[in-house]
Specification:
Length: about 240
């Protein structure tokens, strides 16, 4: 398990540590009644993550100022990842560049430009570090690009054409790739588990939809997805 799965970082590279954990349950059923009014689903007042005796708290550990980097002029930080050495990797969507910083925030390298060629970027949808490689869902989720940790482009893998706007969500320790796709016309997402060899192979998929027959104003609302040892967590909102 790499450090990416243990560190939470804001867009200013402010590193946060969960100071107080989730707390142990009392052994009772944590299920709470879900209230739904006028098309809005309200979070339960109590539950596994809302223990009054052990609320979730965060403590700021460090802030790294990037204003001293003259070139490139960093304008946005997307899909931030951290390797085992503490180096940062992120995509600047406005510059269409993949950028790496050392643990102190000094520029290590930058690569890429806007386009569809090898090593180019156009509307990337997610990035993950796995086995000392960087994987980027690129070109509006139509291909998966592989880079080494020095920014060198290695290879592209075409994504199945029936997956719309594929986003790279996570990569498990066993190499299982978790991706999501748009599920038009409903609240939810299509979630895919994939295997990467010489090509990408879909191992399974899950269709996540609202269970009640209601229409929402937005055609597609996608949430956050995270792999667990068994299964995954999916979260979303309707606003």
């Amino acid at each position: 398990m790499n450090l990416t799965k243990h560190r939470i970082t804001t867009c200013t590279l402010a590193l946060l540590l969960m100071a107080t954990g989730f707390g142990c349950g009392n052994g009772e059923d944590d299920a709470s009644t879900i209230i739904k009014e006028n098309g809005v689903i309200y979070n339960p007042a109590e539950g596994a993550l809302q223990e009054e005796s052990a609320p979730v708290e965060f403590e700021l550990l460090e802030t790294i100022d990037l204003s001293g980097i003259e070139e490139p002029v960093i304008s946005s930080i997307g899909y931030l990842q951290i390797d085992e050495a503490g180096n940062f990797y992120f995509i600047d969507r406005r510059l269409s560049k993949l950028i790496s910083l050392d643990p102190e925030g000094n520029l290590r390298w930058e690569t890429g430009e806007e386009g569809k060629g090898p090593g180019d970027f156009e509307n990337p949808f997610g990035m993950n570090v796995h086995n000392n490689k960087l994987f980027v869902a690129n070109i509006q989720g139509t291909r998966l690009d592989e880079f080494d940790l020095n920014g060198n482009f290695i290879k592209s893998y075409d994504l199945p054409k029936d997956i719309s706007f594929a986003s790279l969500e996570d990569i498990g320790d066993d190499g299982t790739i978790l991706m999501s796709g748009a599920n038009f016309g409903t609240v939810g997402a299509l979630v895919y588990t994939m295997e990467l060899t010489d090509s990408l192979r879909v191992k399974g998929n899950v269709n996540i939809i609202e269970t009640e027959d209601e229409e929402y104003s937005r055609a597609t609302i996608r949430g956050g997805i995270k792999l667990l040892d068994e299964g995954f967590i999916y979260s979303y909102n309707t606003q």
